[in-house]
Amino acid sequence: MATKDIYYIPEGSKWPIFGSFALFSLFIGGALLLNGSANANTVLYIGIALVAYMFVGWFNEVIGESRSGKYNQQVDVSFRMGMGWFIFSEVMFFAAFFGALYYARMFSIPWLGGLGSGTATHEFLWSTFEATWPLSVTPDPTNFDQPKDVIPAFGVPAINTLILLTSGVTVTIAHWALKANKRATLILWLAATVILGFVFVFFQAEEYAHAYSDLNLKLSSGIYGSTFYMLTGFHGFHVTMGAVMLLVILLRSFKGHFSKKDHFAFEAVAWYWHFVDVVWLGLFIFVYWV
Amino acid sequence: MSTVAHEHDHHHAPSGLKRWIFSTNHKDIGTLYLIFSLMMFFIGGAMAMIIRAELFQPGLQFVDPQFYNSMVTVHALIMIFGAVMPAGVGLANWMIPLMIGAPDMALPRMNNMSFWILPFGFALLISTLFMNGGGPAGGWTMYPPLVLQLGDAFPFLIFTVHILGVSSIMGAINIIATVFNMRAPGMTLMKMPLFVWTWVITAFLLIASLPVFAGAVTMLLTDKYFGTSFFSAAGGGDPVLFQHIFWFFGHPEVYILALPAFGIISTIIPTFSRKPLFGYASMVYATASIAILSFFVWAHHMFTVGMPIKGELFFMYATMLISVPTGVKVFNWIATMWKGAMTFETPMLFSIAFVILFTIGGFSGLMLGITPVDFQYHDTYFVVAHFHYVLLTGAIFALMAAVYYWLPKWTGYMYDEKLGKIHFWLSTIAANVLFFPQHFLGLAGMPRRIPDYNIQFADFNMISSIGGFAYGLSQLLFVYIVIKCALGGKKAKSQAWEGAKGLEWTVPSPAPFHTFETPPKLTKAMLEH
Question: Which residue in chain B has the smallest CA separation from A21?
Answer without folding.
Answer: B120
